[in-house]
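Lab meeting, action items carried over

1. Structure of the two-component assembly. Owner: GW. Status: complete.
Input record:
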Amino acid sequence: MSTTEKAMEAFVHETGGWVAAQLEACTRCGMCAEACHFYQATGNPEYAPVWKMELLRRAYEQRFTFVGGIKLSLGLDKPITDEDLAHWSDLNYEACTVCNKCSMVCPMGIDIGTLLHGMRAGLAAAGDVPADLAAAVTKQVNEGSPLGMTSSVWDQRLEWVADEWEVEIPRDVKDATTLVVFSSIEVMKFPANVAAIAKILNKAGEKWTVSSKAREIVNFGFYEGSEEHTKLFLNRVLDGAKDLNVKRIVVTECGHAYDALRWHAANWIPEASNFEVIHITGVLGELIGSGRIKIKPGFFNDGGKITFHDACKIQRKGGHIQEPRDILKVLAPDAFIEMTPNREESVCCGGGGGVIAVKAADPVRYASFELKIDQVNTVSAKTVAMTCSNCRLQFTDSVDHFKLDWKVAGLSQMVADALEE
Amino acid sequence: MSSQAVLEFARGPFFYFALLFMLFGLAYRLFSVISLGWSKDRVVPMGSKSKGVVVTFLKAFLIWPFIPWVKNTFNRNPLIYIGGGLFHLSLFVVVILGTPHMLVWKSLIGLGWPTLPLPVVDWMAAVGIIAMVILLINRRIHPVLKLISGPAEFFAWLFVFLPMITGYMMTHHIGGSYEALYARHMITVDVLMIWIPLSRISHFVFYFFSRAIHGQEFGKRGVAV
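Predicted assembly:
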């Protein structure tokens, strides 16, 4: 099978009635462009979400519609070529974080983000994935983590975190209630987050554990759009959970992984429904709301203004919009300030969806971050809090790139710092 | 052929052919989409899907076209919002609340309703026509719209525009005898009805799917639609 045929087959596979009805509803009004941070930042018309999914539409029309078939046979539409796939690979992997803001402004209400994920499925099937992203996927297949967090590295890092922060991290505890699966971004780059979450759960008296089998929550297969790889990585987590006989799986500060495990896994792997899946943000809200942990009111009141960045996969697509606000209003009642737009209409950080892993995307990634700079500076915040390590990676990298004097903070860490003894 | 004969044909056999073509065409389109299958969503919801669907439809019907600033992208592209909103409003006023059109509906479905005075309908028709022209110009100059528009978009515009302009000319007796004007209007309406199932003008059918999906997807996550 040629690469274009593979892509066509994957596109067609994506085209159930659910996708088709939405492709049919599109009026090509172009309004989605105005929602896209990559389009806003660069003005490049090819970054309009409707254009990024052009191949999916063409594949659907050519294969499934009467008019599309006629157009193809009359030469009014051309079959999809290798060049098309390569070009749309650049558009989709470099200038789309699958943040789904476009869906918020679509007058027809089309779930554009999910259709763009379908685009990636076709591109991944054809092997048209940027080399650095593909390498990260291969690394996760072989070593268990895209950041090289092999079994022994994981072991040493957790040992070190436990020592350094003097916190207990229960490992492979059978019949624990909660399995916590960290992302390698946290374990390797933000270890204080791992310590913070451990501290909070210990304090709450939660029966929790980490698993040496399910040690990586990040899912580069989901970034790539390959169902095969996505399932492989999801199964590693689910197998670990099954082995330890836990009730629920807590996804730590990683957005894409949460989206994959919480909102998609059950439709690919029926056993996924055996576990409750919840994001750490939801856990924090639950623990504080029920009084199982107490935080010092006003603990962060004096360090300048604090704002909250909503992540696309945890807030807009994840539903944990209110908890961080409730927490920040306790931690910093006077210092907390909202950006506009926020909540489900938040502007994406620009680094999600695997974009930060693609070197060629650097210019547009930084360009789109300038929108965030404007937002933060408008409210003159000195600290930006968030619940996603991928956003945090983009923030810390961009703060460095643009030489900004902000503090970038993970919400779990703030909560851990403000815990009442 | 006299204008009278053309008119007889356009509001007689041709009209009924076009109407049936449109209805069967849309039914076929709908059937082919549904027959592609719908997989069951096994994800455990965090919020209510049905609430999401109800709210999104209410918002879309009541708020969307008329209070566009609820979405902050409005200020980035007000023209499409205002132009598109006014066009659809005009369509609704003229085709549903205009007396002559109400009478057509009455003859087809046997049901009538109160209508708006002619001057109001007439002004709204003019607004719709102007909106269409502005939207076309915008489609020719806006970089995104230029990129995503081809012959299909142009034809869709043309076949919607023609009944509007011929209807307006007929109301104001511009450009010929009453029969000739009426015949022209009817022919363009017939052509439009044939074009609907062959083009994206059919979006009003699939709108109910995509809007419902939007409500479900945001509703099940407990996020405001």
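2. GW to write a short summary for the group page. Key points so far: The first helix of chain B runs from residue 3 to 11. Chain B has a mean pLDDT of 92.
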